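Below is how a single chain appears once it has passed through the pipeline. First comes the sequence as given, then the structure the pipeline wrote out for it. We keep one example in the README because the format questions we get most often are answered faster by looking than by reading.
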Amino acid sequence: MLSEIQKLFLGDAPSWYKSTIIGFLIFNPILLLILNIFMPENYGRDSGYIDSTFILGWILLLQFIFTLAMALKCYPLQPGGLLAIEAVILGLTSTETIYYEISENLKVILLLIFMVAGIFFMKNLMLTIFTKLLLSIRSKTYLSLLFCASAAVLSAFLDALTVTAVLIGVMIGFYRIYHAVISGGDFRNQQHDFKDNSQINTLKEGELEAFRGFLRDLVMHGAVGTALGGVCTTVGEPQNLVIAGKAGWDFMEFFLQMAPITMPILFTGLFTCVMLEKFSIAGFGNQLPSSVRDIFNDYSNYRNENITTNDKAVLLIESIVLIFLVLALAFSIAAVGLIGLTVMVLLTAFKGVTKEHDLGEAFHEALPFTALLAVFFAIVSVIYDQKLFDPVIRYVLLQDPSVQPSLFYIANGFLSAVSDNVFVATIYIKQIALTIPAGTDQFNNLAIAINVGTNIPSIATPNGQAAFLFLLTSSLAPLINLSYLRMVYMALPYTIILSVVGYISIYTLL
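Resulting structure:
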């Protein structure tokens, strides 16, 4: 019986991975017990020292990052969830704090549930648009630049998660069409199992890997683009609204305050995109095989020659709803999640999608990640309750005001890369609001440094931004072999160059 339970634990994950997670769960309470015995009571944080739960909190955070790094070995929800449960049992956080963190981020959760589902029912239009772009732009460098720039512009006026959801949907659509053909089927089969590679012969394996690399490049350029645009406006990232609220800035004032820093970063990012493709740096530069382009040409011709009145009606409905989506998000008529729900209702109603089974398929992508995000907020609760970031905040606030913006930028960048940029920005902006009057030059400078620091260096790791984490844990990632370490590696040139430009801009201008 015990051996069967061991086999069932974490399913098909490698044995070494299962042993590691079990080791974490056993190690943590033992370490806490040892620390409590050997660390005197006067080592509490009130006396200026660290205590046992502070140390264990950092260790738990690193263990959770490990589960994210191994996302392709095992979905992080289960191992990360076990660590979160243990954190509550060991007293590192409480269920009340976790509930508070989740409720504070309800807008993000609603966005994931409903906006991703809404985009799912717009896949015909999206695939049509992007297929035409794929075929009309032959230069991989120009195509990559277009993906990066488009994602930046859209993220500035919509939001990064919505744009990432569109990118994921389009890439899965591309992969489905190609995989159906090389597996012996055709692109008309919408029920094709694109995760089954058993029918692919060895002659096509190299071509498949090249196509995966091509898609990987485009989606990573697009993901970085969401950060480039997301930092510029109040709606680009969730924390931007918090910062704008504390500073008293509206949409235009926020953009103008950030522009001296964000515009150099934006143009540097686009230039970096071109250089990465031109010189094939960090795994970029994968070209679309000519045989694959022929398949998409055939698909496009088939669609044009066999399009029916029903197909045209569907595309018209999706186009109208897309216009509504853009306007609704641009003018912020409601929370993004509620706009997504509206989009889903409109599309399913007018396209005649009324069966529960057909509706359920739209939620397959977002709900596992939503559950993972709730677990992530549990780890954030440990950071909050154990005040893991407080020493950094205290240190920076004790420095000379002239160097505080650049120090805040560095500190925010590092902490955002290892945890979550929304949480870090919220903690920091609330802290400076308690010590520095809003509206003063110093407050404005620090608010700018916090915004840029939490948006740009956080692209270093998937856990830094929700959009990156969503991409890593999506069904697309295993299809194109996009692992945690590969994401870090591909983002590294962007991280270094953009972070340096951000630091120089803040150091010289603020």
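The mean pLDDT is 84.

See the next section for the split statistics.
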